[in-house]
């Protein structure tokens, strides 16, 4: 299913690192020297302006991304732009704008959270999102078996909002395949998935291809592995060598590898600065084979263990 207007690049912008002062991307603290609300809004709008100028028309937020929805909604309204907007429910931001908070977000996939967060999203965006996803659905939370939640999502789908799920963790593929089998009164209200895929963690690829073949839209996140596949991390030597040969930075190659997947409809940049965005956009100039850098894959358990060790900063 096409998520973008004609001639738009398949690169979108995620606001996970733009809407709150603390995040797990490597070096995030250095990207935001001033962390008051106005400074973060100004920075977010600057990056959003640069993304729009580059043709980006897909923007992703969530209730737990601090004030990301409000920043995005205010920007769209203030600039008079029309874009495709995705948001997510299921996590609540609780850090109170602190980077040293003991807990930054709390997960809950029950009906009360959905009922509370949907009008909060409407108010923050000043519009309905085009896509509304269960945030980091897993089999353990039972959300894909919760008849009351699924019935409410089916109501939203019937109203014209495309509902689905985002996935995380080593069980992404299993979770997605279960989601493909969801049925509410004989129909599956879910039709979109946002999943982690990168050259270190490609294990969801076959399930994403299955979803795409079933007519689902596929959005790819965390393509630079929260900074591990950028110059700030220690990218695998093969990726670094390819980036040098192509005269781009490692992040551009990592994003290009995701764009090369035939099932990927939109690939998200998680840029926090215009410099990072410009670097990410170079991916659009590259043409890689779908199996490029396939030898870099880690075991999902190892990848997610490393990710869980990243600190909020």
From TrEMBL:
InterPro entries: AKR2_Oxidoreductase (IPR053135), NAD(P)_OxRdtase_dom_sf (IPR036812), NADP_OxRdtase_dom (IPR023210). Residues 42-295 form the NADP-dependent oxidoreductase domain. Signal peptide: none annotated. It comes from the Bacteria. Pfam families: Aldo_ket_red (PF00248). This is Oxidoreductase. It comes from Deinococcus aerophilus.
């Amino acid at each position: 299913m096409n998520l973008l207007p004609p001639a738009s690049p398949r690169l979108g912008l995620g606001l996970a690192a733009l809407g709150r002062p603390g995040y797990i991307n490597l070096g995030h603290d250095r990207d935001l020297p001033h962390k008051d609300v106005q400074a973060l809004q100004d920075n977010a709008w600057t990056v959003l302006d640069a993304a729009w100028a580059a043709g980006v028309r897909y923007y992703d937020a969530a209730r737990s991304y601090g004030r990301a929805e409000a920043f995005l909604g205010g920007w769209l309204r203030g600039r008079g732009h029309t874009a495709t907007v995705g948001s997510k429910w299921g996590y609540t931001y609780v850090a109170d704008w602190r980077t040293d908070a003991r807990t930054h977000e709390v997960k809950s996939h029950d009906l009360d959270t959905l009922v509370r967060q949907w009008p909060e999203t409407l108010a923050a965006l000043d519009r309905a999102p085009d896509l509304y996803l269960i945030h980091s659905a897993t089999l353990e939370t039972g959300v894909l078996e919760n008849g009351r939640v699924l019935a409410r999502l089916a109501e939203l789908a019937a109203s014209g909002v495309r509902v689905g799920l985002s996935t995380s963790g080593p069980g992404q593929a299993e979770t997605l395949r279960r989601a493909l089998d969801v049925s509410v009164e004989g129909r599956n209200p879910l039709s979109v998935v946002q999943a982690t895929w990168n050259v270190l963690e490609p294990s969801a690829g076959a399930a994403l291809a299955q979803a795409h073949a079933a007519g689902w839209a596929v959005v790819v996140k965390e393509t630079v592995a929260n900074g591990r596949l950028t110059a700030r991390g220690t990218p695998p030597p093969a990726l670094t060598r390819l980036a040098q040969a192509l005269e781009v930075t490692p992040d551009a190659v990592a994003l290009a590898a995701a764009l090369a997947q035939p099932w990927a409809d939109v690939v998200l940049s998680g840029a926090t600065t215009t410099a990072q965005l410009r670097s990410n956009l170079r991916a659009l100039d590259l043409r890689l084979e779908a199996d490029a850098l396939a030898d870099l894959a880690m075991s999902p358990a190892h990848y997610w263990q490393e990710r869980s060790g990243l600190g909020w900063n």
